[in-house]
Amino acid sequence: MTSMTNTGYARHFDETQSIEVSQACTGCGACLITCPVSCLKSSSNGIVFIGNGCTFCLDCLEVCPVGAVKLIRRVDN
Ligand code: SF4
Ligand code: SF4
Questions:
Q1: Residue 11 located in a structural domain
Q2: Structural domain range at position 34
Q3: Which ligand neighbours the alpha carbon of 34 most closely?
Q4: Residues 6+ apart with CB under 8 A from 30
Q5: Who contacts 20 (Cβ-Cβ below 8 Å, separation ≥6)?
Q6: Residue 2 lies in a domain
């Protein structure tokens, strides 16, 4: 597990990275329980990434049994 404690650094990564949940999600809820800052929520459309406060620890990727959670890197053009 990697955690970022420098808020400036974390803010930079908020702008360049995101978490996405694919349709492979079974709704088991493991990622919801695992996220230390409650950035993932259950909705009528499945699991959604709220983003606010995400440290990109990637624990949600590691815990998902079906690999439905992905780290998305945004590329500036
Ligand atoms: S990367 Fe970490 S903080 Fe961000 S949604 Fe996943 S478990 Fe939560
Ligand atoms: S751990 Fe994976 S399968 Fe389970 S709810 Fe989260 S995204 Fe869906």
A1: yes
A2: 7-73
A3: 1
A4: 63, 64, 65
A5: 49, 69, 70, 72
A6: no
CA of 70 to the centre of ligand 1 (A): 11
Residue 41 lies in a domain: yes
The reply to whether ligand 1 has any atom less than 6 angstroms from the CB of 68 is: no
Q: Is the CB of 47 under 6 A from ligand 2?
A: yes
The structure tokens 């079906």 sit at 66
In short, whether 19's Cβ falls inside 6 Å of ligand 1 is: yes
pLDDT in tens, the chain (77 residues): 444 444 444 445 567 899 999 999 999 999 999 999 999 999 998 999 998 899 999 999 999 999 999 999 977 65
What pLDDT score was predicted for residue 58?
A: 97
Ligand 1 site, residue 37, Cβ cutoff 6 A? yes
> What total number of domains does the chain contain?
1
pTM for this entry: 0.82
